[in-house]
Specification:
This is Enoyl reductase (ER) domain-containing protein. The strands form 3 sheets. Strands 3, 5, 6, 7, 8, 13 and 14 form a 7-stranded mixed beta sheet that branches. A 4-stranded parallel beta sheet has the order 11-10-9-12, with helices on both faces. Strands 2-1-4 form a 3-stranded antiparallel beta sheet. Helix 4 packs across helix 6. With 346 residues, it is of the alpha/beta class. The chain is globular. Helix 6 links the parallel strand 9 and strand 10. The chain has 11 helices and 14 strands.
């Protein structure tokens, strides 16, 4: 038996329970011993707001890293002993045995199409900062409209496709925004402008932002600063109807940031808006993100991406509920990813 954090019904509470360890990997599945799982704000929103999950009971936890201990019949992509990462829970509304697939436990099943092998350059903790934020950023930028911005995907041939085109990443210090900056750099965007807290201004520059603007600046001042940046770095003139930018990625998606994005993006007869989630095994996401899982290991080995900052929270699963309360109360900075080790649970 193993300890797990479960929600038994919609709008239910997070409860600690014991449940069986998965013993058999069926076709298309692997079983992983979880070494690290990062904590996401979504994990308090699901039970409180009744969103995302439609089949209960469910074990929460999505950013999962661990060692493969069993492989389903006919699978050649992974072997016992491989270190892998993934977004743990898949296929909303599919009646999958959700408790077997959740990340807040010591062992879970994974669908074989979406884990990626972890190169030795990443620790388990660092690797756990990637899955949902990394793949959400990729889908937001490269999935087809209206499920993303519709940019030419990096895989197979989108590198440097947008050379000398400017882009604004709203919330570049966030988990998703930080990876959005890194993707923008690989796509060739320049300048890469971002908004973030100036207390953490060095972090967005590391992944490739060229200009940083205080996230608390007024919309009018933000526009003025972007005009100044564009005038000094590009030959771009104002776009139709007073728009400044052809591409804006809002990694925060609050009403205030959405208003800013609409104000700055190129106006005219039509503005295309895309929205996405970080879950791969949803029909609208599946094809876009599968190629990225296949490419992930090489990208990390080549040093193209850096993980988020890590805060290892002691206590394992016992620490999750308190950490989620702190997230709900905005007491945890989005610049640092809290990570637990399920094996430390009492």
């Amino acid at each position: 038996m193993q300890t797990a954090l479960m929600v038994n019904e919609k709008f239910g509470k997070i409860t600690r329970t014991t449940r069986p360890i998965p013993q058999t990997a069926d076709a298309g599945e692997i079983i992983v011993k979880i070494k690290a799982a990062s904590i996401n704000g979504m994990d308090w929103k699901i039970p409180k707001w009744g969103i995302i999950v439609y089949d209960y009971p469910t074990v929460l936890g999505y950013d999962v890293v661990g060692d493969v201990i069993a492989v389903g019949e006919g699978i050649n992509k992974f072997s016992v002993g491989d270190k892998v990462l993934t977004v743990a829970v898949f296929s909303f509304g599919s009646c999958l045995p959700y408790p077997d697939f959740g990340g807040y436990q010591s062992y879970c099943k994974l669908k074989v199409d979406f884990p990626a092998k972890i190169p030795p350059t990443l620790t388990y903790d660092q690797a756990s900062t990637f899955p949902i934020a990394f793949f959400a950023a990729y889908q937001a930028m490269y999935n087809t409209l209206p499920h993303g911005m519709g940019l030419t995907p990096l895989v197979p041939s989108g590198r440097d496709k947008y050379t000398n085109k400017p882009i604004l990443i709203i919330g570049g210090g966030s988990y998703v925004g930080s990876f959005g900056i890194q993707f923008a750099r690989l796509s060739g965007f320049s300048p890469v402008i971002t908004t973030t807290s100036l207390k953490h201004a060095d972090r967005p520059k590391g992944p490739g932002a060229t200009h940083i603007i205080d996230r608390n600046t007024s919309p009018a001042s933000l526009r003025e600063q972007i005009v100044s940046i564009l005038s000094s770095t590009t030959n771009q003139t104002l776009l139709a109807e007073g728009g400044l930018l052809e591409y804006v990625f809002d990694a925060i998606s609050a009403p205030s940031t959405q208003s800013i994005a609409f104000d700055l993006v190129a106006a005219g007869e039509r503005v295309n808006v895309g929205a996405t989630t970080g879950f791969p095994d949803v029909p609208k996401n599946r094809e876009c993100v599968k190629a990225v899982y296949d490419q992930f290991t090489k990208w990390i080995e080549d040093g193209l991406f850096v993980p988020s900052n890590v805060e290892v929270v002691p206590g394992g699963l016992d620490a999750v509920v308190d950490c989620l309360k702190r997230m709900e109360n905005n007491e945890i900075s989005t610049e640092t990813k809290p990570v637990i080790h399920p094996s430390e649970s009492s």
